[in-house]
Amino acid sequence: MASYILKRLLLMIPTLLGVLILTFTMVQFVPGGPVEQMVSQLQGRDSGGERAAVSGAGYRGRQGLDAQRIEEIKTLYGFDKPVHERFFQMLGQFARFDLGQSFYQRKDVWELVKEKMPVSVSLGLWTFFISYLVAVPLGVAKAVRAGSRFDFFTTLIVLIGYAIPGFVLGVALLVIFGGQLQWFPLRGLTSSNWESLSVGAKVVDYLWHIALPVTAMVLGSFAVTAVLTKNSFLEEIRKQYVLTARAKGLSERQVLWKHVFRNALIPIITGFPAAFIGAFFTGSLLIETLFSLDGLGLLSYESVIRRDYPVVLGTLYLFTLIGLATKLISDLCYVWVDPRVKFD
């Protein structure tokens, strides 16, 4: 076990380096970087900093920039150094867990992640808990009643929910419950007067705001977990040890929860750490945009569009590192759930 963990930890280093090298290399060839954007903005203004719009003043066109001014802009964003030097400087910062500073927001990437995380955590944790607490018992019930009307109708409902994209469902929820019926707010995570509310009122206000976006997000993962649980239980119920347990006179409840449950949950439990950790750092761009929620999904999208490279590379490094560690924890859960599993 110790040698396996050490081997996996050592393999994380080249994997992380490969991801950073590929991303950093692609960034160098993407047009419209921060230097080009700044030059474009300066060229589009007159000497006074604004376009001439007064009648008779005349528009003097796009003003040129001399080489010295362009070099100053490159120095401002750190592009005056060679590519390899910038890459190794970035690696040195990441080794100290310094994710750099945003070009446009003038804040540390860590600070931006902390600011946006509450929204993504709210969406992710509610989606995670609802998916597991409802979908797993539903999957067990569907497996026990396989082929019945209950199984047929619940499967139909689950598949319909899975087939509807989250943002489409979000639009429908907004139009019906937010626009026509006005039962829920259209945007935001809390009301504008949230600070002045009592503790109980704050909880109600928060749940009131989070209801529609969580409903729009939960259906996809809910369907996958429910169907996976059902299929896993069906596979275990048909095995020989279940027939043996029943032949010994054990009740159906004992057979199901004492023998089948532990083996059937192996594929579900092993994905539990990744889903739980991912709930803290996974942002949904479409849902956050639709419900005007400023989370990690919107931050990642805006940083790519604006070519905010420190945010792009910093968050990529952080999320890749978390993903690799979570994958290791998921693999170790196999041993915890089933001691028969040997990594050698």
UniProtKB/TrEMBL annotation:
Intracellular or extracellular location(s): Cell membrane
Alphabetically ordered keywords of this record: Cell membrane, Membrane, Transmembrane, Transmembrane helix, Transport
Domain ABC transmembrane type-1: residue ranges: 117-330
Membrane topology: Multi-pass membrane protein
N-terminal signal peptide: none
Positions of transmembrane segments: 9-30, 119-140, 152-177, 206-229, 264-291, 311-337
GO biological process, one term: transmembrane transport
Major subcellular site: membrane
Presence of keyword Cell inner membrane: no
InterPro entries linked to this entry: MetI-like (IPR000515), MetI-like_sf (IPR035906)
Keyword ATP-binding: no
GO CC term (a single one): plasma membrane
Family stated for the protein in its record: Belongs to the binding-protein-dependent transport system permease family.
NCBIfam families: PRK15133.1
The protein's name in its UniProt record: Inner membrane ABC transporter permease protein YejB
Record organism: Polaromonas vacuolata
Organism placement in taxonomy: Bacteria, Pseudomonadati, Pseudomonadota, Betaproteobacteria, Burkholderiales
